[in-house]
């Protein structure tokens, strides 16, 4: 019975993000744990790095801090060290600001929430999804200001595909019920998508095989534990469960199978 239940839960999770796939979790978890051990010299700066624990940060309990670059501010959501290694954050660039050239030793993932983000390779308007694989580098800036969701140094070592999905090139597909889904990236256990919820949509209660991470881009996301307005970040551990719904049109970024 236990195996049947887990299979059912995983099937619901995969249908939720329509066509995204996953496989065994062991390699991914082992790599994550080893990377934390190798890069963390001082526990003082660690934040939300216990992936067995659920975390929710709404806009009203997020702390913005200035970065070493003028005009660039951040909300650290999870990090392993002060200015290096695994970090997930919201980042704002004031108009005309820039950040020094830097290398992505284990990759960088960006979703542009507001404004236009730029680097020497192009301009990326709100709604753009970017993956800069391990070994790449760039010098980011903005002309008129922007806000980003950034996951740094979290790629699996074999995941080397660069990705840029702009708003005008997006191919949405039908999900369960009235959901619309845009697959952004899939590699091994990890799947990432945007999910658009119509007004008053209710999804099935389901478990998170390999965990789930959500950014509420617009609207109001709801489950039995609370309400999460635009700008909220949620991280749910492996085998946690919830019963999500919305009362208004809502757009979320979702990553599963990576915890």
From TrEMBL:
Gene3D superfamilies: Jelly Rolls. Residues 53-155, 163-259 form the ChrR-like cupin domain. Transmembrane segments: none annotated. It comes from hydrothermal vent metagenome. This is ChrR-like cupin domain-containing protein. Pfam families: Cupin_7.
